[in-house]
Amino acid sequence: MAEWWTSLDLFMKILWCIAIATSLIFIIETVLTFIGIDSDVDTDFEISDGSFETDVSMNLYTFRNLVNFLLGMSWTAILLKENIASKALLMVIAFAVGALLVAAVMYMFKWLAKMQQSGNIDIYKSAPGCQGKVYLTIPSERKGTGKVQITINGSVREYDAVTDSDADLKTGASIKVSEVLDASTLLVEEINSFII
Question: Which residue from 52, 99, 170, 191 puts its CA 20 to 30 A from 9's CA?
Answer without folding.
Answer: 99
